[in-house]
Amino acid sequence: MQTFLILTSTSTPSFADLISIGGFLPAFLLVSVKEFGMRKSWKFAGLCSGTLFLFGTALPAFAVPPTAAAILSFKPKQEGIAFSTPSPEEEASCKVELTKGIKKGSGWTLKDGQGNLVRKFFDSNEDNRIDVWSYYKDGVEVYREIDTNFNGKADLYRWLNAGGTKIGIDENEDIKIDSWQIISPEEVSQEILKAVATKDFSRLKPLLLTEADLKTLDLQGEAARKVREQVIASAAKFQATLTKLPTLDDKTTWLHVEMGIPQCLPADQTGSKGDIFRFAKGTILYEAAGKTDWLQTGEMFLVNGAWKLADAPIPGAVSEEEGSIRPGTNKIDLEKDPELKKLVDELAAIDAAVESNSTGGASATLAKHHLRRADHLEKILAKVKPEDRDPWIRQLADSLSSAAQNSVAGDMVASKRLASLEEQLAKGLPGSNLAGYVSFRGLQADYAARISKPGEDFNKIQNDWMAKLAAFVQAYPKADDAPDALLQLGMVSEFLGKDVEAKNWYTQIAKNFVGKPQAAKATGSIRRMESEGQPFTLTGASLANPSQTFDITSIKDKMVVVYYWASWNGQTLGDFAKLKLIMETYGPKGLDLVCVNLDTTSEEATTFLKRSPFAAQHLYQPGGLEGKLATDYGIQVLPQVFLVGKDGKVVGKNLQISTVEEEIKKSLK
After folding, report:
1. Is 581 contained in some domain?
2. Cα–Cα distance measured from residue 447 to residue 461, given in angstroms and rounded to the nearest whole number
3. pTM of the model
4. CA neighbor of 474 nearest in space, from 507, 430, 444
5. Could you give the CA distance from residue 159 to residue 80 in angstroms, rounded to a whole number?
6. C-alpha distances out from residue 277 to 95, 264, 290, 567, Å
7. Is 142 helix (H, G, I), strand (E, B) or coil?
8. Structural domain that includes position 159
9. Same domain, 503 and 401
10. Phi, psi torsion values for 483, nearest 5 degrees
11. pLDDT tens digits, residue range 552-563?
12. Has residue 94 got a pLDDT over 90?
């Protein structure tokens, strides 16, 4: 038997990197992972990117998978990924297994001795090349590299689960992010600090608004001009910031970011085609050269699923008047207090070591983590000056609230500590924003604990929740969380059938918190509650073709079911099946269907529909439950169903799929 091997240049990361050209081709590279163990003869056409293998005759039926060491030799291309890696001693207990896709594709998984996933390298399009590289922490995927054009080089990077939410695009495949498809405000702040610390404007640039972003936002007039000028001046401003922060280097540590409350600029106010969501400013707390200091993020706008900057960062803290961070923004010189520096360093280490919770429910591990974090925050609070305590107290309240919500039934340690903190602030700083902040976290923790307890009277829980929320807004009418509390009051009142009370709560938000996102939701909720007998308005872009705009008034002389959905909602799949049957029965009799998707990104919706096709007019607009398609009618809970009559007026609101057919029958008589 003759065997011929031809090698061309390889790209990384690929299994081609594992080949020893001076020796022999490892057996595991001689077979397609798709066919491993399934066929008795082989002709291999190249598993690796940039590598071609030609064999003149058939190969043996058996081939050996890659070793654990070989798979572990691959590292993430992006920095700062916290992922699990077995020690050399633990490698012996690791197992490499063939994995196959649900519909197509195959690859290799590496599991540790406890059966937890460590790596997964996958060929998604069955071209015998690995195009997805996944890394896991504690058995849960936290980071993924994807070769979307199947040329052997990763061009899309995703942070998942405990790893974050970012999706970065590398257009020229040089391992540097060229644009962000999805990124949260917190992750933007981390990228800002990295850019400043490494003195790398090219890292900041993908975070800045582009001309295409401005067109998407449809900013008008003076606002658009101002943003353009800021973006143009951002490079010079960035350099000026660097000269003022000479001590920052790659050892600089991100500790926390204060963003304040996001703002909604309604379309009828700005003249844009949709509502605009922004943060006026934010402030990053960081540690460098033994000292803590602050860095302003600049203004941020939400563009599709990514928060983008309209300005370069500048040193210092944001004042109370600027609307982001609270008082207590003095710099802390950690070099003068080694004990405090040690505590801050330990807090950063605790945050870096947090374990993911793959179950989605209460987690004793997470409760333990947040209690440990709270212990360290209390030690820090004991060391810092009173005027510097505000942000640390907020972090303490967040940690205790998270611990309480993740504690097992009957464990009241975190709840009691949070209640004690709330009592101290209520006495020491009555009516203050800080006291309100802590109080609201206490309410959330208590409600979460009660609602998850089996056997509880649900209506009683809701009524108690309403009473506590009402007391909160009376005690803290101007608190940052007051709009959320009022919105919850309106929602729960609706659920309990107390429509008059619900409208009163919604009206209070719309009147007292003009310009806040909650005000837009409240106004829409009132419109929905009063919609029966009124013309139904719905205009939006097609999910399949965003350049096409749909207007429900284009449907003439038909009843219309309007169904609001999202891929993450557990009822969607079953509702689609029921809607299909309803349309088969009543479509010929004059019924039409319009579906409104409220996913955060259009990719989530299209992926769901590819997996579970449902033919209908699907509309989509960025923003999810915060976007215009949701806020126009105050859609806060999914699914939401309207029935619109042939005259274009609402016949039924707040319907369920189980009841909509009866309404259709009545209206078609």
Report:
1. yes
2. 8
3. 0.57
4. 430
5. 11
6. 47, 5, 36, 23
7. strand
8. 75-169
9. yes
10. -60, -40
11. 999 999 999 999
12. yes
